[in-house]
UniProtKB/TrEMBL annotation:
Pathway connected to this protein: Porphyrin-containing compound metabolism; protoporphyrin-IX biosynthesis; coproporphyrinogen-III from 5-aminolevulinate: step 2/4
Domain Porphobilinogen deaminase N-terminal: 8-212
Keywords assigned by UniProt, alphabetized: Porphyrin biosynthesis, Transferase
Encoding gene, per UniProt annotation: hemC
Gene Ontology MF terms in the entry: hydroxymethylbilane synthase activity
Family: Belongs to the HMBS family.
Protein's name in the database: Hydroxymethylbilane synthase
Cellular component, GO annotation: cytoplasm
Gene3D superfamilies: Periplasmic binding protein-like II (3.40.190.10)
Top-tier EC class: transferase
The organism of origin for this protein: Parachlamydia acanthamoebae (strain UV7)
General function of this protein: Tetrapolymerization of the monopyrrole PBG into the hydroxymethylbilane pre-uroporphyrinogen in several discrete steps.
Enzyme Commission code(s) on record: 2.5.1.61
């Protein structure tokens, strides 16, 4: 008799990038656990809804994770998938990081319109970013840049560029990779990036030992990780 698939409920943000991240986890998990199917539960978090709030001075809070954590703690979901750099510090009591993937390119990039170069951007070009660190690194490319806040999905951010509201936007290269947008015209920023950028974090209830065992194959920190693609 064939085995029945085991379905796991996965809490994740409803953005296109988050959906690509969950698919990445499913594909990486499949060679090790081919009978496990991830059933996403898409959620709009506080951070997704309150786009008027600037991230420039925000600490490591649960701004993008609170609603997902609540689904885990209530037992409505088995695991949650996050961008690792968005994790609050400390994690909520009762939850544990059960896997931290190897990740993809962790660099930041300045995306500009097709056909332009860094030197060809206008004097005092307007650059969109919500990070003071990224702002400082962009100034290493050109000291005349001006800056505006940047929130929303990658698509919403790119629309600022397309509409001419901004001359460039700064995003994570990992986001472009996961969304198949590596054809965009971009310049890599110098300097360090946010800790754990490009990596995915999988959380579960601390007491849920089975989830830790299942996802151990994706944990780059444990030495058990056999998946080289995430």
């Amino acid at each position: 008799m064939p085995l029945s698939p085991k379905c796991l409920r996965v809490a994740a943000r409803e953005s296109p990038l988050s959906k690509a991240q969950v698919l990445e986890v499913q594909q990486a998990l499949h060679p090790h656990h081919p009978m496990i199917e991830l059933i996403p539960v898409w959620v709009a978090t506080t951070g997704d809804k309150q786009q008027e709030i600037s991230l420039r001075n925000m600490e490591k809070t649960d701004f993008f994770t609170k609603e997902l954590d609540a689904l885990l703690l209530s037992g409505q979901c088995d695991v949650a998938v996050h961008s690792a750099k968005d994790l609050p510090d400390p994690l909520p009591q009762g939850l544990s990081l059960i896997a931290l993937t190897e990740g993809v390119d962790n660099r930041d990039v300045l995306v500009i319109r097709e056909g332009l170069s860094l030197a060809a951007l206008p004097q005092a070009a307007m650059i969109a970013t919500s990070s003071e660190r990224r702002e400082q690194q962009a100034r290493m490319l050109r000291t005349d840049f001006r800056f505006m806040d940047l929130r929303g999905t990658i698509g919403q951010r790119l629309s600022l560029l397309e509409a001419g509201v901004a001359d460039g936007i700064i995003v994570a290269e990992a986001a472009l990779i996961r969304l198949g947008l590596c054809h965009l015209n971009r310049v890599y920023l110098p300097g360090e990036t946010a800790p754990m950028q490009g990596r995915l974090a999988i959380l579960a209830k601390t007491e849920h030992v089975e989830m830790r065992e299942i996802f151990a194959c994706l944990d780059a920190e444990s030495g058990l990780c056999l998946a080289s693609s995430i």
